[in-house]
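Notebook, p. 212. Picked up where the previous page left off. The plan for this session was modest: take the two constructs that came back from the sequencing core last week, fold each one, and keep the raw output in the notebook itself so nobody has to go hunting through shared drives later. Recording the first one now, exactly as returned: residue sequence, then the structure token string.
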Amino acid sequence: MARGKLPIFDRRAEDGRLMGYQVKIRKPGFPSISRQFDRKADAERFAIDTLRDMNSGTWVDRREAERTSLLEALERYEREVTPAKKSAESERHVIARWKRHALASRSLASLRPGDFAGFRDARLSEGKSPNTVRIELALVSHLFRKAIREWGMGLTANPLANIDKPKLPGGRTRRLIRDADPKKDEQARLFNACEESRSRHLLPVVKLALETAMRRGELVGLRWGDIDLAGRVARLIDTKNGDSRDVPLSPAAVEILNGLPRSIDGRVFALDGKTLEHTFRRAVAKAGLDDFTFHDLRHEATSRLVESGRFTVVEVAAITGHKSMQMLKRYTHPRATDLAAKLAAPAPGTAPAAKRGRPKKAVVGDVVAMPVRGEHG
């Protein structure tokens, strides 16, 4: 039986027991809507909100979002969106983790900001890094944007849009220590360990990384057809940010490349990204370097370009491929000792500062000219 003016009906068992409530909305110009609720208050709220939105012209058909679980949406995202990404392989692992989570069984329409804030806090409490959690949240946030804009799910808001993302730690400041003492010189120790590696390409790829500031993926993707040794330029077709880039080659970089044999398949280095990473880690361990990653070579190379003083910041960004000055700043870490030495050195084109003392007399012929206080000539 309907309750007042709201289309709410009792749901009863055959023996007459009250089992819940059902909302049945039949309004001209709108699809029929039927929803079941355990609590009368929930049924009334749904009926009031739906009729109000229909009367005001703001009603949106959310039935597709109510029928579609996050799991089903993830599967669609994996089929339609992930394959076009460069990070497709790693993203599939992120999707697999989401599929195993309890939220995956919920409908898209039922998910709220608090659900994802709880997910964030739980993952951080498990010891996951802030960046890992940000990547997980970013994937589902993009899924909701797709559902809103392209999939016709009837959603009007992204529940992840305004939740706080885990704060990332500051950029890494790990630098290679160079020293006259071979035992303290980390670069020398790293080169020696790479030279002793079973991979004949490890040492040249590490040296080239330090000369060019190329990323790991850019290095392993190099092909001889994209390198102009005479013009000293390497053309990167497929970079991380999607743009091609011409990388100038130093004389040392040209020497490294000239020393490599040519392969039939046209690749400069017979290594893939994972193999290079694992081989490099073994060399780092053998060299006794603490907390040093392959990507730190890019940090080091970029910092050396800045410290050389030969390039403007814009020129450095053109070499390294950084999109913004803020990103470039994260990758450049001048040593405080180097900056202190610059502060102590005289500015270019100036003489060292004279020692303080009494002003010297200026002698012109037999006349002795004494400087007058306050006189500036």
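Okay, moving on. Second construct, recorded in the same format:
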Amino acid sequence: MMSELARAIDQIAKDKGIPREVLVEACEKSILAAARKMLGPNTDIEAQYNEELGEVELFEFRTVVEEIEDHEVEISLEEARELDPGAEVGDSLGIKANLDDFGRIAAQTAKQVLLQHVRDAEREYIYNEYKDRKDELITGIVRRFEKASYIVDLGKGEALLPPREQAPTESYRPGDRLQAYVLDVLRTSRGPQIIISRSHPNLIRRLFEMEVPEIFEGIVRIEGVAREPGYRAKIAVASRDSDVYPVGACVGMKGSRVQAVVQELRGEKIDIIPWSIDPAKFVCNAIAPASVSKVIIDEESRSMELIVPDDQLSLAIGKRGQNVRLAAQLTGWRIDIIGETKIQELNLAAREELKAIEGFSETLIEILVRHGYRHMTDVADSDPEELVDLLGLELERATQIVNRARELVAERGTAPDGTLKPPPEEAPPGDEAAQDAVPEVVEPGEPAVASPSVGLEEPTEVAGSEPEPVAASEIEERGGISNASPGVPQAAPEGDEENADRTE
């Protein structure tokens, strides 16, 4: 007949998934801890589980001696032979202890130790169960919402969906089924912590592996994933078999495969594009559905300029720049999108700016413009050997062009948009007097003072009258400077005593 302890061990092993040997060891350690608390720490004791009886037996070991000096660890020869007739001096005799003699405190200690060992064993089992499932898909049931995080029941353990790994457009209620990507499995003081994600790009990879057999078998590869969780995603696919079209394999019959992934992501749009080893072609595919007229590549800065028709400009950029942003993430290139009208204006300005280099023919300028040279600084920063390869010039001539461009940049400077500042305009010869003779407008309440450049003496105040400032506009109305050089005060006509008292 199975004892109650044996039945309890079997039931816990079945429910918790803990190996039976671990539970048996936990029972032995709990009885051992209780016995040490009752008999003392110096006592030599041992606990063993008896499979036949279905209970834990406790043995106290004592050394057989002729004269007892320590009653806790020694036993006399006479007492030892009563228990074992073959006992001799120096033998270690194991005496079975009666567990019924344990008090309430010892029993409580055994219970606490047993629960702690079972809890530790359960945590270790959960950690070992999920530590190898990192980077995989997992399915669970949402149980509760704590501190902006969702607690998901995985059956044998619980997972945490933190706020940073949630899609902004998704929300869940207790009881909802959830499929997520296992981001990490951590061992903490409170037990294993399983971190799952609904926003990681690899979630789309695993969903397509589950829905598309060609991807699972390795015939079709997902080369890259760019994603803005909850809104839109782009994936680049390639095929190892020339007979298998990768985009069609991922889309499926009437879009059945990709629609299954979209439904799991709760309506997130997915663009599937063919991957290409040619960066320009790959970027043009990534910017779809917009069409591209021309591509200018700068491999050194790993950037591209895409020239698109004006009616395709907003489509290429996308809502709030979403399309071009995802394309840049997917390809790893910096992408600038320019409309055809704008590029014509930039090219026209570039032709005019590059004409500042003496002896630079229009043919050479046109070649540079077509290759993306739009400012004098582009020529100044270039290597003469680049111009040799690009324009077919000799190295000496290319060096002269680069040096002249650097001189122009140093002399004039550049505007904030990178264009070369225009040369300073010089006044025509003989025009200095006209510039100096412009009459100054005198503010009301201030005395009128002649410009020192005219060479006139300071005005003399007329005795018996107080000078009053007069605005230039008022002087013109009175005809004070109508028949003379601008800015030179004239004598008042005879008989006009009022005007004679006023000086400019």
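Notes on construct two before I forget. Residues 367 and 391 are 7 Å apart (CA to CA).
Flagging for discussion at group meeting.
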